[in-house]
Amino acid sequence: MGKHEKLIKRLNSRPKDFTFQELSTLLAGFGYVLNQSGSGSRVRFEHDSHSPILMHKPHPSPVLKPYLVDQVLDVLKQEGLL
Question: Has residue 24 got a pLDDT over 90?
Answer without folding.
Answer: yes
